[in-house]
Amino acid sequence: MKYQNIGFGLGLRSPHYDEILATRPKQVDWFEIISENFIDAHQGYWEFLADLRQDYPIIMHGVSLSIGSPDPINKEYLKKLAKLADFLQVPWLSDHLCWTGMNGKNTHDLLPLPYSEEMLAHVANKIHQVQEILGRNIVIENPSSYVEFNASQMPESEFLVKLVKATDCGILLDVNNVFVSAFNHGFDAREYIYAMPAPNIAQIHLAGHKNFGTHIIDTHDNFVLDEVWQLYDYAIKTKGQISTMIEWDENIPEFSVLVAELEKARNLSSARLAA
Amino acid sequence: MSFASLNNLQAAILEKNFTLALPDIKPNQRISPQAQINIYVEGYRLRLLAAIRSDYPETLTLIGEKKFDELALEFIEQNPSENYNLDFYPHKFANFLLQLSDKSWSEAISDRVETKHAQHMSVIKDSILKEQAIAIVFMGEESEPVAPNELAKLSPEEFGNLILKPRLASKFLQSLYVYRHNNEVQKVPLSEAEYLLLEKLFAGTPVTTALDELITNYPQYQAEIAQNLTNWFSKWTAQGFFA
Q1: Quick one: what percent of chain A has pLDDT higher than 70?
Q2: How far apart are CA A84 and CA A40, in angstroms?
Q3: CA distance A235 to chain B (A)
Q4: What is the pLDDT, as a whole number, of residue B26?
Q5: Nearest to A71 by CA among A40, A36, A100, A93
Q6: Does A97 reach chain B within 8 Å, measured CB to CB?
């Protein structure tokens, strides 16, 4: 394995800052931050992270790399990422297989890419640039998506596997995203997970979603659904124990609710590995 | 070309122009291509709207939720986001609101006038400027404050020649100084005399000159200044007003 298993983590969200600092919960092994919430933030936020870092590893998860965009890499943004990553001594940092905008515009969404050979070469080239500037390998998350392009020449899983081969980047396997996209586009979620190269999987995301009948949206506003827990069980069975975290970004509940959800992941993972 | 598909999807999301994007989307048995793209179209607007609402809560209450959202969505249609950090997006919304014509404002608040129209408008505009200042200062870079004991060390002549600058992350409004100090956004109300003196100081006028000019131009404040000057400087430096 190229990435250390650091256990079970939670997304660090502002409603819980005070409680986390005051109680230093033992049930959480690490925290994941949204990079953009901190790279431009004032010193107070960095001091808060430094305080937290004394007790927990912190992973940086970005939403603005826009790796598939035809626009050039934003080097200023990358320098800020690298500065915070060094400050926190993060085990790894991640972003998404997506683009967020082009021609200087930003949709603030994780938009899907056409999975073509041309796009593969483009994204691989940009990942090489990013890894050179950061001085470390980046971890790339599979997105949830609501459209597929006619220009695609291969499934997303194949694109991601080829990207890993070309760049040796890590994978953030978002099991909920696999489930969402599998439903929306009609592919087999287990086949997708099976195809992922285990040594490069740095981390797993779990989250809630909303099913509208015709499509599912990745809402991060509720408990992880049973089907996603089953898929997580399959991921652990086929790939082994992997650092896992729960994402909950809307209608954020009490911290204890998140801890209980994380405990569920821990128990499920332990039970699978013991079986 | 793959990039053409991206360009077409972005045009659909930002401009609601679906013409070019629709043929790029792979057919789906359950949902039409337009409905699929609409998930992104709606998501974009909701995300930006939430960011604007978050930065202007008082203005939202004053204008009313329905009209505020209408104005915010109008702003969003005219101003695509150009920064990777969504926190910066709402800053220019204040300029958009303040540039609206009197006619637009009359229509905007016609069903919510509880006080006289002009008075109500003045309250709304103050709120817009204050909330914009808070948002900008929050994202700004904090500079070191001048410590009170540094001023205490100066001779009267040195103090009189002193040029005092505002903090780097700050906005100086008519009756309010918004600045970042100790990693918090501070909002300090100012009397008219305080405002006039600080205005001169922040413009780079040495202390004695600023006082002389103020008393010459506004003799009505002479007594207030004489009575409060020492207290003002003590309070201002203790509160980290100056960089």
Answers
A1: 100
A2: 10
A3: 27
A4: 95
A5: A100
A6: no
| Contacts by A79-87, CB closer than 8 A, 24 or more apart | A79/A133, A80/A39, A80/A40, A81/A35, A81/A39, A81/A134, A82/A133, A82/A134, A82/A135, A83/A39, A84/A35, A84/A38, A84/A39, A84/A46, A84/A60, A85/A60, A85/A134, A85/A136, A87/A46, A87/A49, A87/A50
How many domains in chain B?
2
CA torsion, points A207, A199, A62, A214, in degrees to nearest 10? -40
Q: How is residue B151 written in tokens?
A: 């001023």
Element (H, E) at A95: strand A93-96
- Domain end among B139, B174, B198: B139
Domain residue limits, chain A:
8-20+27-102+110-274
Task: Give CA–CA dist B28/B39, Å, rounded.
Answer: 14
DSSP state of B25: B
This model of the complex carries an ipTM of 0.95
3-class secondary-structure state, position A139: strand
Q: What are phi and psi of A200, to 5 degrees?
A: -95, -5
Best residue of A74, A96, A99, A147 to probe chain B, by most B CBs closer than 10 Å? A147
For B129-140, b/e burial (b = at least 16 CB within 10 A) is bbbbbbbbbbbb
User: Cα(A76)–Cα(A69) distance, rounded to whole angstroms?
Assistant: 16
Nearest to B201 by CA among A176, A136, A13, B190: B190
A13 in Cβ contact with A61 (< 8 Å):
no
Q: What range defines the domain where residue B194 resides?
A: 148-238
**Whether residue B113 has pLDDT greater than 60:** no
Give the pLDDT score at B111.
60
CATH class of A8-20+27-102+110-274: alpha beta
Q: What is the pTM of this model?
A: 0.92
Mutation to test the A interface, candidates B2, B54, B81, B82, most A Cβ within 10 Å: B2
- Three-class DSSP labels, B160-188: HCCCCCECCCEEEECCEEEEEECCEEEEE
B180 and B130 within one domain: no
In a domain, B243, yes or no: no
The shortest CB-CB distance from B6 to any of A36, A99, A184 is to A99
Q: Are B193 and B221 in contact, with CB atoms under 8 Å apart?
A: yes
Q: Are the CB atoms for A139 and A203 separated by under 8 Å?
A: yes
